[in-house]
């Protein structure tokens, strides 16, 4: 199952990367990333992009007993206040 295109954008933004940076890291062309984020890429490109994000610590959560997709990371482990304090804000 493919996640909605907006979740692919969210995954990239959680990593703090541009489309060009993801392309350089993943070996997926910037054009394919653009198409995936706009909902026009083929399933092979989307799955390759999802594997790249999974390797970087971003997982997609498919709809289950509740409707709607989700996203989670294994690198953001502090709440808002703790993260702000760590960033010196």
Automatic annotation (TrEMBL):
Gene3D superfamilies reported in the protein's UniProt record: lambda repressor-like DNA-binding domains
GO MF entries: DNA binding
Domain HTH cro/C1-type residue range list: 8-51
Name listed for the protein in its UniProt record: HTH cro/C1-type domain-containing protein
Taxon lineage: Bacteria, Pseudomonadati, Pseudomonadota, Alphaproteobacteria, Hyphomicrobiales
């Amino acid at each position: 199952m493919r996640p909605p295109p907006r979740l692919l954008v969210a995954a990239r933004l959680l990593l703090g990367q541009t489309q060009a940076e993801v392309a350089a890291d993943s070996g997926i062309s910037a054009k394919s990333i653009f198409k995936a984020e706009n909902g026009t890429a083929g399933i092979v490109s989307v799955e390759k992009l999802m594997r790249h994000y999974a390797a970087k610590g971003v997982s997609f959560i498919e709809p289950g007993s509740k409707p709607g997709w989700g996203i989670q990371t294994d690198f953001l482990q502090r709440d808002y206040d703790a993260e702000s304090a760590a960033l010196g804000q």
